[in-house]
Request: fold
Amino acid sequence: MNAPLFRPVRSFMIRYYSTEISSKPRDADVRNLGRAIVDDFAKIRAKYRTPKHPIVLAHGLLGFDELHLVGPALPGIHYWRGIAEAMRKNGIEVITTSVPASSTIEERANKLSSEIEKKAGGKSSGMSSLELAQCTNYADEPRGSAFADYVFERIGPTSLPRIFRALKTLRIETGAFTQLTRRFMAEDFNPKTSDREGVRYLSYGASVDPPLWSAFYHSHRILKREEGPNDGLVSVESSKWGDYKGTLVNVSHLDLINWTNRLRWLVWEMTGNKRK
Reply:
């Protein structure tokens, strides 16, 4: 199979700023899984050198660009909350994209290509004619998910078709779900889909030890048993593709898109406090 313009793994975004790197991991389990990145923002600069090319933010499974729960009249929920704004304040040209939330990899990759072509076409900034310079994956699953394997095993082959039919009646596509398995990635997608020549592929993983009340507690336990350190949804081992840059320590899957900070601020303000 010819190399696609975008290797259509489930999510990628181009690196947007640097963090302080520490050689001393907080979690001993990540010592042999690349550099431990302690992302405490203690020395984040206010200004960074602006990349010469636009940066594309592409969400993963069940993601979106902007979600309106009660119609367009009220403000929507932004998937990349605060991230795109921070980049633009540093003079970076940012392109946010939206693809079908749970369609097949092929369908989502085609939609991603058309989205970028529409939003960046004709610009002499490295993205015209869909020229991709670098692809950076954050906690993606190019090798499949042990948690997906666990879910399918628990559902069983008898009940699965019935569940898929129910989802389709709700207009929820199901093509992406079976493509999450480690077997599909190892035996089907990866052997048939090579990296595109001339594109630099980078990847980061994340590791967290969630508390008992966390929504990620049970999925984290399952993944840790099967694949080791993980962010609650994606293991560090499965995140590796191309040049692995390191593991974000004490970072959950929601932390990666700044949603945890949003919830913290919401609780902070509801208790009568104000941002300084």
